[in-house]
Amino acid sequence: MRQFTRGLAEVGVEVLGVGDGAPDPELKRWLHGYLEVPSLMNEPDTAHRVLQWLGGRSVDNVLANWEPLVILAARLRERLGIPGMSVDTVRGFRDKQIMKERVAAAGLRVPKARRVRSVAEMWAALEYIGYPAIVKPISGAGSADTYKVMSAAEAEQVVPHLRHVEEAIAEEFIQGAEYTYDTASIGGTPAYESVTRYLPNALEMRSNEWISPVMISVRDMSQPHIQAGVQLGRAALKALGMGDGMTHMEWFHTPSGEVVFGEVACRPGGACVVDQMNYTSDIDLFREWARVVTQRRFEASTERKYNVGIIFKRARGRGHITRLVGIRELYERYRPHIVEDTLLRPGQPRRDWKATLLSDGYLVVRHPDWNRAVEMTNFAVNDLYLEAR
């Protein structure tokens, strides 16, 4: 969010920030004003405080790039009479059942799904969908509180873990390779598009600590199955009424060759997805997003120069990092192609891998050739590891 704020300031925007903590010096330098509220999650209270704070001052837009706040931003736009995506439109990106219904109505392939508000409704939905199935929050982000159930017995075990979730969705499990489709869009039309492959699929990487999750951006998007995913993404954005801004969509390529919609959000992808796109094309999408949402222009190159791999590492053991095995060999082999290294070093405490995909640090590598990019990511996955105790 600090980088998006920088982008706005660099295209000449006066930025008024709202948050539930004090801004750090780096963020503060890009702000013309700041309102600290008790909790951004208290939507009515935050909206009331923002309107009081503005005191009739004119603002040109209200923006939010964090999933839980996109509805609040839309409500404030409507209250202030600012053009932009309506609450109803944004709800189509936030509520997964409404989202799937609107995308399906456009004739696109989506997983079978039903809204779930009670245990009884969950059982009814699973009977309709069949197994395997996915159960997750209706308005969640990422893979939080998301469960794959293979049978009624497994579903029974999941129920206690979802009692804090007000609404959930039960949907068909799609077997296939998982990709993202990311855009910077103007009036719903993508000005910049990117596709990234998850290795393994997102749910699996979020469920197993021993896995080193990988995301590789695809330089050559002319491949038939990639183009099919791109066409699916464009059609989904049209069906949902996308306006100006960045979007992040997940989709599947099944063994039979079918492309299936997963879900989409009207905000940028997390876990370094925007950085990855920047490294792919050697551009600054934080600044270009700012241009898109304030000037409806995109000025950067759309050329895809590299396949970019991000490898997230999780240390073996608990406590503090004691050593990195394979890091010297990695640099000896691939130094010119390593563009970022945030791996924790000896003496630093391990992070909670369930709380952040960034885990115990990550590496970013890139190469114009797909096979070389995969080779580097495979080395970082299999021959590099962190130890902790």
- The structural domain count equals 4
- Give the low-pLDDT segments: none
Quick one: CATH class of the largest domain? Alpha Beta
Termini gap = 33 Å
Which architecture name of the largest domain does CATH use? 2-Layer Sandwich
Q: So, the CATH homologous superfamily of the largest domain?
A: ATP-grasp fold, B domain
Global mean pLDDT: 95
Rg of Cα set:
21 Å
The proportion of residues forming helix, as a percent range, comes to: 25-40%
Major sheet size, sense and barrel closure: 8 strands, antiparallel
Q: What is the N-to-C succession of helices and strands?
A: HEHEHHHHEHEEHEEEHEHEEHHEEHEEHE
Give the strand line-up of the largest sheet.
11-10-7-8-9-12-15-14
- What is the 3D shape? globular
Strand-residue fraction? 15-25%
Question: How would you describe this protein?
Answer:
With 389 residues, the protein is α+β, with helices and mostly antiparallel strands. It contains 14 helices and 16 strands. The mean pLDDT is 95.
Structural features:
389 residues, Dna Ligase, domain 1, D-amino Acid Aminotransferase, Chain A, domain 1, 4 domains, 4-stranded antiparallel β-sheet, 23% strand, globular
How would you sum up this structure in a few lines?
The protein is an alpha+beta fold and 389 residues long. The protein has helices at residues 2-10, 25-28, 43-54, 70-80, 87-94, 96-105, 119-129, 152-158, 202-207, 224-240, 273-281, 285-295, 327-334, 370-382, and strands spanning 16-19, 33-36, 113-116, 133-137, 147-149, 168-172, 177-186, 189-199, 214-217, 245-253, 259-265, 307-312, 321-325, 338-341, 362-367, 385-388.
